[in-house]
């Protein structure tokens, strides 16, 4: 790690609380969390607020351009780490990329025929939900179902990762992404229905 | 290895020096300035004890007047008296033409598409007009605080786009103010409220003004104000209540649909007066001039008015529901609802909001002043007057940012309600063989189809080395700073070709555009999906035809019998026809037809290329 750069504040003799930001740290190291799928959400929230408290550009309203620019980059980096770790699918995917697994969004997809059939059925159920007797209730039920299935996959992912079954873990991440898309679709459908009710 | 070494800013200034800082609510109708004195944030009055400064500027050959005096001249000299200039901020000449009859001023086109208003005091830009208002507020603050200001926090509506924010910032600079930060109005209200009450938990800010509605969901924790989601309707407010009441009156009084402009203005004012009267009584008398000297006398009850504004309130509640969903928060988690804006004085609004959230909304801070007070608290912290203050604001972008892709579709790179500052990158690739340049179109909005979003900027990445389609790796990076301003850069990873743009559009959306965009993103999602499917199939059809033609040119002679060739050509013709005027499903079937007809051909080409590739290699190389 490079030596600390003398800050302008030191020149004024004011006390300095140095914040060392090492951009080569991974998101877990940055947040002071163990690398792994299990997440201590409260610890993540605390670390996020602590880091933003030190790095947010608003803390540097009275500083020079260079420090302000660094603060914008640092705060953006912390925001990205927080958003990545907070979300199950993104965290799972990130853990694999840390192990050198590459994802190609254009090409990679799940190919398990049973799973794909299930996806088609869920998608059809979503498309038909607006015609149900209680469409919003039906959507809520479907969303719950989707969340539960995604959660089950998360548990399988944690197991596969622990056992170093990387290929299986990657397949599970790709499947989790399918559920994310279904969740977003359910959300859009619900918004549309609510608007139509007005 | 990058290393960032930063000192604690609050410590870097002389602890005994108190910097003078203000918060300014630059409103459409009225503006306010506030500051923290002896630990208390309060709005500052003028010499005559008035806090509100009408956002009106009068120009004459003799000079400029601002505020109450200017407002008085509006009736006598309307063309030289500029009111509601906030609506013009960040707008271009073209935009203003569509702001229909609302603006009586004479415009002339200025440099870079920025409109100027022709007045007796010369041509002025909306930025200059706003600067006059800000200058008066700065002078008022310096007189009451007794010194030069170190800086200011200026509030803007949460839905303000880049151009509107930039214009506001420019106006402040022109007025001699150092802008610490632009702050979203609902967030400012949350600060005023949260710091005042020492709250912890999730709060909702319901901000219904004269012409706009904003809803923000925030989490307050140990001095950190984290905006979880923001939403709203930029064309919904108290003015619409007035319009609904006016339409009811016209119906009751049997007035014609097309009365003259003067009479309609009068009617709108009568409607507004009735609305205000019904705030504290159950019914009110109406005396309306119908035509000529003919007068209609009637009465409107509170219940009748509530029915009229019900659909409008429902719209605001739909936006609340959406913001809660975006925030990932359940209704019962909201511990407090803060009301901001004059239109929240309508009892039925309060009642419906109370029902929706299951709790009485807080109205204990003056809804007219709460925004300025919050801005003052933030300014005090940013000035470095509170080195121990933990207060921190984490805000979000209100509308998604993206790039136009093939077929006029939008790929969102930063979704709405992402915390700023933020940097995100996405890889794109070339569509044609040998393509050496890529045009990038940056857009903002929620719709899938590019035409329905707001265009922010266009630029071109050149110098991509010629490669086969899909081989180039173009990385597009979006960076948004804490004020919500966007930078975009693009880089071809293999060659290092680079291009960047600072997104500073010369003007923003029209009211109609904003209104239409918001309404469309709500109600046309289905239409979007169909349009998207169609464009996707059209792009796919183009790709299939291009690939087929290339394959036929290369191996058609060698690998196909005449009859086979005929079948493929026929399938290709059907696809070309479907591509020209078919729906998504027809194109899809035609693509499948081509794929089926070409199945054997593809297999033979594959075998041939494998044979070619393997020629001269030993078998073990492939194991």
Automatic annotation (TrEMBL), chain B:
Gene3D superfamilies linked: 1.20.1270.10, 3.30.420.40, Actin, Chain A, domain 4 (3.90.640.10), Substrate Binding Domain Of DNAk, Chain A, domain 1 (2.60.34.10)
Keyword hit for Cytoplasm: no
InterPro entries: ATPase_NBD (IPR043129), Heat_shock_70_CS (IPR018181), HscA_NBD (IPR042039), HSP70_C_sf (IPR029048), HSP70_peptide-bd_sf (IPR029047), Hsp_70_fam (IPR013126), ISC_FeS_clus_asmbl_HscA (IPR010236)
Keywords of the record: ATP-binding, Chaperone, Nucleotide-binding, Oxidoreductase
Entry's Gene Ontology BP terms: iron-sulfur cluster assembly
A GO molecular-function annotation: ATP hydrolysis activity
PANTHER family: HEAT SHOCK PROTEIN 70KDA
Role noted for this protein: Chaperone involved in the maturation of iron-sulfur cluster-containing proteins. Has a low intrinsic ATPase activity which is markedly stimulated by HscB.
Annotated family: Belongs to the heat shock protein 70 family.
Protein name in the entry: Chaperone protein HscA homolog
Taxon lineage: Bacteria, Pseudomonadati, Pseudomonadota, Gammaproteobacteria, Chromatiales
